[in-house]
Amino acid sequence: MIIFDDKNKTFRLKTRNTEYAMRIVHEKYVVHLYYGGKNHCRGDACKEKIVDFAPYIAEVGESFSLDTIPTELSFFDSGDTKDVAVKIKNANGDATTLFYYKTYRVFEGREELKDLPHSRGGDQTLELIYFDEVSACVLRSYYTIFEECDTIVRYAKFENSGKNTVYIEQASACQLDIAGGDYSLVTLAGDYCCERNIAESPVHVGIQGIYSKRGHSSHRSNPFLALKEKSASENKGEAYAFEFVYSGDFEARVEKSFSGKLRVLMGLNRDTFSWCLESGETFYTPETILTYSAEGMNKLSQNLHDHIRGHIMPPRFAYAERPVVINTWEAMHFNFDESKALQYALRAKSLDMDMIVIDDGWYGNRCNDASGLGDWYVNRKKFTEGLAAFSEKVHAIGLKLGIWIEPEMISPNSDLYKKHPDWVLCSRGRKASFGRKQLVLDLANDEVVDYIVNALKRTLFGVKFEYIKWDFNRCLSEAGSAVLPAERQSETKHRFMLGSYRMHRLLTEAFPDVLFEGCSGGGGRFDAGMLYYCPQIWASDNTDPVCRLPIQKGTLLAYPPSALSAHVTVTRYNKLETSPDLSFRFNVACDGILGYEMDITRLDAGQETQIRDQIVRYKAIQHLLLGGDVYIPSDLQNGEYATLIVAKDKSEFVLLYRNTGAEKRDRLPLCGLKPSAEYEDAAGNRIKGDSLEFSNVCIQNKSDYSFLIFYGKII
Ligand code: DGJ
Questions:
Q1: Residue 324 C-beta-side C-alpha neighbours within 13 Å
Q2: Residue 296 C-alpha to ligand 1 middle, in angstroms?
Q3: For the whole model, what pTM was predicted?
């Protein structure tokens, strides 16, 4: 519910458990009052007082300084000398920016964004309308509330209503000023093969933050940030989260003043973005999802999970059962053909899998990673009768078919590059760097997007397939576009993302029943922007189960299990003869959407039975992964990982417990179940709602790891 109290000029945005409040003061300024638990807002957070050296607005009085007052949005060189949300370079050459509040509008639902991924639905929206007299720009700041999820979505729209061209040099989707408190900054940090590890550090005086300048949200950082009260735990204490619905360069910054005030900003990366806004043009920032929890980090994650499943993922797939796949990559890399693929398909069917995914190598002259990208026609040496005929054979076996693509890239050794060397991203007068021997297509050029979409549509026409894995295997560099004029070159990376989103939209619209899985050399583009089109994303190229545990734990902090694609693999590096064994690998993969990557034609009878049994067990719990609440028990030791997923009505749960080196324990306190209840598995083992007694249930001890899957129903 959004309420405007005309007497106090106060807006109150209320969700099920939270409240966000702001006030218009001196007619032109919007100050932030409160974000936290519902009905706790006192509204006195913005007392004005004279502060030496703080620039003040003379017409209002010495005690009114934008430098000291908490605001909803802050503007460059406007007297707020902290890190600010918005900066516009005016036609007069300076970048002093000051938007005054003019009016507001409240409406049901939200505005649809055509070009950007965004949260679907929404209960109500508050639109605050500001105007900057010098740049003659209108700024509309949006707050859409999602009452059931306890989330608020924020973004901004700029309109140049003047005659002169201006440049947007900083565009944050949101700002949150917090009066004070002792917080830790929680982010998801990593690198290739070790993405999204939870990183926690105290918020100190000064600026801290995360960013990507790599052209994708990246393996190194993730567009997610949380502030957690120092004393908060998984189940207790206050925390805020910010999640950017965007897949390209971003920044999220936290500034703490000496007096303890905090400001959080999230938006496009100011170093790699600027936008030329001509008279009459408009510009939208991507959006940020905000949430608050008074019940620790688990509730924070649950709010985000509910929001992503209910409002970001394509509704057609969000809660739908997902196929268990055999993917060809780890076992065969580029070395396969139709007959080998059909052998895999036959075996996959006998193992009760649902789908075979033909990964990289089915198209063009793609025999290794040095050629073929951009040539989206089937490789007739590998599939002599074509893809359509192959797809019929796969379906005749009783299996579904998935196909890998990497449509944003081009190999210099390809027919497409010979024809269109000008279709790659490259700054003028420079040589483009390579990444995995490939270049990046210039998606700022609509012609390139249309060409690739049409080529894929042509090739896939008549092919019976149910899944696409969409890969993206390098970072952007020398990001210039041949189709943009000099003054718009610094728009290239954002325009590349808009082109990529258009490509995602056109292909998902062309194949509405096809499930898309995102991927970027593992989890280099694991973000809410991608989840808008691809309801699941390959989490990491590191499939060693022990290494996967911290990656998956971090991922689940911000994204639901149904977003996380996790396979049981046997690779060159993690051979089956070495520990951990198949059952441990399976236990770890159960954190997300299960699949297999291994040579399934060489399994022994025991392993085949084991896999069949795993798939039955997985299918019995998949509905919990698709719609349940995730709880991480709070006193886990180093080396101990547990994911507890509980049905919304608490009638059943699955506990995935792994110990990779911590002290053995007899009892694990649980949260999230009905404390007074008892739950029982099919074998009659029982768990009390408040704790797991290890003596009561069987833990298999394999190698050095102890682990357990307990699926129980209330009795
Ligand atoms: C990187 C992905 O993460 C892998 O799973 C695989 O699809 C390769 N690319 C194929 O080139």
A1: 23
A2: 36
A3: 0.97
